[in-house]
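Lab manual, section 2.4: Encoding a predicted structure.

Procedure: take the sequence of the chain (326 residues), apply the prediction step described in section 2.3, and record the output as structure tokens. A sample record is shown.
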Amino acid sequence: MSFTTMILQWFKENGRALPWRETRDPYAIWLSEIILQQTRIEQGRPYWERFMKRWPTVEALANATEDEVLREWQGLGYYSRARNLHTAAKQVLVRGGFPTTIEGIKSLKGVGDYTAAAIGSIAFDLPAAVVDGNVYRVLSRHYGIDTPINTTEGKKEFTVLAQSLLPATQASAFNQAMMDFGAIQCTPSNPNCPSCPLAESCVAFREGHVSELPVKQKTLKIKERHLTYVYVRCNGQTALHRRPAGDIWQGLYEPWLTEQVLCGAVLLRQNVKHVLTHRILYADFWLWEVEERPQLPDDYFWIKEEEVGNYAVPRLIEILLETLNT
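Recorded output:
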């Protein structure tokens, strides 16, 4: 039995039941793919459900404000995904409908090769193979490929291999099977090799290299950054500002970010660690209660304290704000 046949058989018996698999609506499928980038299914599913309930069509999402979309996205991280999602919805609206070709889908903001292949194959039966972390892992182990997956050579090699295994008339099932097989059976750590239907033909299992594959070149340099936030409380109001483009958390809100030492301020949290992909943040959080509004930079604005929850904030700020209620 071939690799492709065995993967499809495994999927028929073990595939996950997910709401976005019960439709061919490209909007619902696209939304799930964007949400599940860098996000586990159990975390992303409630967000997908809320988005679909609030904005059931791409037209509805396009007509939302960016602030509304960011607020609904709060807690998922990687907020550029939300901004791109909103921009792409407007692109679809201008086009008069969702694109039905791989290149057309890739023209949408925030959609790359993998996402385009996933949407195209699932929604429109386009014969395009998906290649993500699950696929890299399954193929590298089964075929014993040690080419680094984060190199140009590796990406090309795995894309060609995945495409060669794709059954043209079952692209949707095969792509979803590869995703699920990597997520359930051929997991990053402690894969269930003894019960794997591909164990006999798996090179890594036979040669004892399962834990060593796939190979990834270490190129990421982690930087540290220290932040000092001051929550200014003045007669039931506080000050926020919206983070600009060109830095982390673009478009999200935060309290006063300063390097000043303030007389009378109370330290609520110190050296709170928050890990992002390319850096580690350490934050101090102060409470400063005053009778008159202090002079803040021009881009800060005042709101009632009970309205803070209406503004989308990064997870780190959410953690800091929780201190006020403890």
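Check your result against the sample. Residues 80-95 form the longest helix (16 residues).
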